[in-house]
UniProtKB/TrEMBL annotation:
InterPro entries cross-referenced by the UniProt entry: ArsR-like_HTH, HTH_ArsR_DNA-bd_dom, HTH_MetalResp_TranReg, WH-like_DNA-bd_sf, WH_DNA-bd_sf
Entry-linked CDD domains: HTH_ARSR (cd00090)
Keyword Transmembrane helix: no
Entry-linked PROSITE patterns: HTH_ARSR_2
Gene source species: Paenibacillus thalictri
Keywords: DNA-binding, Transcription, Transcription regulation
Superkingdom assignment: Bacteria
Protein name: ArsR family transcriptional regulator
Domain HTH arsR-type: 1-89
A GO MF label: DNA-binding transcription factor activity
The keyword Transcription regulation belongs to this UniProt entry's keyword annotation: yes
Amino acid sequence: MNNNTLFEALSEPHRRTILDCLRTSERTVGELVAISSLSQPGVSKHLKILREAGLVSVRRDAQRHVYSLSAQPLKELDHWLEPYRLFWSDKLDALEKALDEDESL
């Protein structure tokens, strides 16, 4: 997975909202339209981008398309972020220590 494609897909707030909805259960396009403030074409556009980024999968159920979250790209992103998380963790620990020392004065 290309991280740029993933970041671009995740950068849009409506797409993050759609992913949040799919985190709890799979949903049809109609259900996502009802949950969001978007039109059906708008939701479909965002789902296409999420599908191309590998973040959602789709299956047909009769006449409906049912979407579900595909977590693998998020796991890859989490793995990529790990060294940066360690960097910030060390910085936050140092800040906490400095603040504790400042309070004790």
